[in-house]
Amino acid sequence: MQPLFTFVTPPARCGYLPEQQWQLRYDIVGELTPVEYLQRMKDGWRRFGFSLFRPECPSCRACQVIRVPVDRFRMNTSQKRAKQRNANEIRIEIGTPVVTDEKLQLYDRYHAHQAEAKGWPERDPETPGDYVESFVSNPIPTEEWCYYLGETLVGVGYVDVVPEGLSAIYFYYEPELRDRSLGTFNVLSIIESVQTRKRPHLYLGFYVEGCRSLAYKANFRPNELRDPDGIWHDFR
Predict the structure, then answer these.
(1) Are the C-beta atoms of 58 and 14 separated by less than 8 Å?
(2) What residues pair up with 232 in beta bridges, in sequence order?
(3) I need a labelling partner for 221 at 20 to 30 A (CA). Which of 5, 83, 128, 145 fits?
(4) Where are the domains of the chain?
(5) CA distance 6 to 234
(6) For residues 82 and 69, what is the distance between their CA atoms, to the nearest angstrom?
(7) What is the CATH class of 64-208?
(8) 61-95 burial by CB neighbour count: b if 16+ within 10 A, else e?
(9) Segment 72-112, tens digit of pLDDT
């Protein structure tokens, strides 16, 4: 893998911990193998499309990579309820990423709700080009998980296939159905898929202590964090 170019953003208000400042390093790549990306993930990188990014903040090291060892995973009570509520009513279709008007509208409704409920930045409607750049055009094998209630699309997730398992990139859902805990059901479904494929780990991206939007990741237990020295250790 050879980055086409790389850059570091100037310090700005952190998107995870607003009282902190963050800086992000970006590597824009033309080619990337699953093996290369797995190592990048372990080194603290994530990606959207061909853009890889990693925090390089001047005074904070709160972002840590979190993963679930699926052979030891056990559902808690609320996760069992989420699975029971959805397993017989929600249909999952796994396929190749593609942009549609239906997905764009759902994506916009989800972000509008998150801006109101959790203080996410307000944003303009997603364009097909931006959506393709983030989710559809990918350097490594990526699956699109579509969740349907009847014939209605109610959730969409993107999942990378890497040598040690699966990596959850992003998930959005119908905010009017938030009582269904579709986000939890999505993670449980991916864990089950990792187990079926006989792989060891589900990678969930960054965990940041104190960030409401990322707190759910620590609820899938047991889980492991990778410290700045590259050592995995049990977390919760």
Answers:
(1) no
(2) 226
(3) 145
(4) 64-208
(5) 33
(6) 20
(7) alpha beta
(8) ebbbbbbbbbeebebeeebeebbebbeeebebeee
(9) 999 999 999 999 999 999 999 999 999 999 999 999 999 99
